[in-house]
């Protein structure tokens, strides 16, 4: 019975590979070394501006071209960052090394959109707000004192 399952699985995986355009004969025989590996293409952005509201920057591909605009406080250690994707025209907050359970958020002062999260790991982020033609900032509480980035 085990031999029949193994043969069936081999046939199934071979058929699946052929359906995806690969076969054992054309598959890479061994993993490539890091120096020769190719980088996977960036995920295309799945939202833009207001359609990004409440969406995850990683799941939508917006994090692929994101940049940190500001840090608060402007130092190493616990901080909140305002992150921005020029392709998606959206912003979000990312907390780094904050106190466990601390709340952090991104706020858009022009349209009132807000997204928040709580910190439970070395780095965490909120969902996004629209930042096309508007200004947003990121905030959190550092040892009980509210810290915010400038608006961008």
Shape summary = globular
Mind telling me which CATH architecture of the domain at 49-148 this is? Answer: Sandwich
**Number of beta-strand segments:** 9
Spans with pLDDT under 50 lasting ≥5 residues?
1-41
Task: Write a structural description.
With 152 residues, the chain is an alpha+beta fold. The chain has a domain at 49-148: Sandwich (Immunoglobulin-like). 14% of the residues lie in helices and 31% in strands. The chain has helices spanning 2-19, 57-60; strands at residues 67-72, 79-85, 90-96, 103-108, 114-118, 123-125, 129-130, 136-142, 145-148. The strands form two sheets. Strands 1, 2, 3, 6 and 7 form a five-stranded antiparallel sheet that branches. Strand 8 (136-142) and strand 9 (145-148) form a beta hairpin. Residues 1-41 have low confidence and may be disordered.
Annotation keywords:
single chain; alpha+beta; 4-stranded antiparallel beta sheet; 2 helices; disordered N terminus
Can you summarize this structure?
This protein has 152 residues and is α+β, with helices and mostly antiparallel strands. It has two helices and nine strands, in the order H-H-E-E-E-E-E-E-E-E-E. It has a domain at 49-148: Immunoglobulin-like.
What topology does this entry show?
Blueprint (H helix, E strand, L loop, with lengths): L1 H18 L37 H4 L6 E6 L6 E7 L4 E7 L6 E6 L5 E5 L4 E3 L3 E2 L5 E7 L2 E4 L4
Antiparallel strand pairs: 1-2, 2-3, 3-6, 3-7, 4-5, 4-8, 8-9
